[in-house]
Amino acid sequence: MPEPSAAREYLAQLVGELITGAHDYFLPIEAVEKARRALRSGNDTLDRIDGVREGLGSCASDYGPVRNARDYEPPDEHDVAAIIDRRFGPVEAIFGDRDDG
To answer: N or C: which end of the chain has fewer CB within 10 A?
Structure first.
């Protein structure tokens, strides 16, 4: 578990990023996991995100406040890696690598 000060710093950074930055891209949680795996294996993250975006199944963005979220493009390749690292790296460090396939 992180120290309380590290947890507060992470949460402050996360909230700051979410309320001050532009988020005009498609990157739902379902695509994050697929993109994370692609990053680790050296595959194209954008293909994985587009697979969710263009897929027929539902995703979290279908139920959010943004209409037609799938109309947005994914972030560029470099931004995907940075977003995943900033937002999910500390959480992943707590639980370790739990790749199930």
So the answer is: C
Helix axes 77-95, 29-41, angle to 10 degrees: 100
- Give 26-73 pLDDT, tens digit per residue: 999 989 988 988 988 988 899 999 999 998 888 888 998 888 999 999
Please give the tally of structural domains in the chain: 1
Domain around 60: 24-95
Domain assignment of residue 65, yes or no: yes
**Buried/exposed 54-64: b ≥16 CB within 10 Å, e otherwise:** eeeeebebeee
Residues with Cβ within 8 Å of 39's Cβ and at least 6 positions away in sequence, in order, are: 45, 80, 81, 84
| DSSP, res 33 | H
Contact of 26 with 66, CB cutoff 8 Å: no
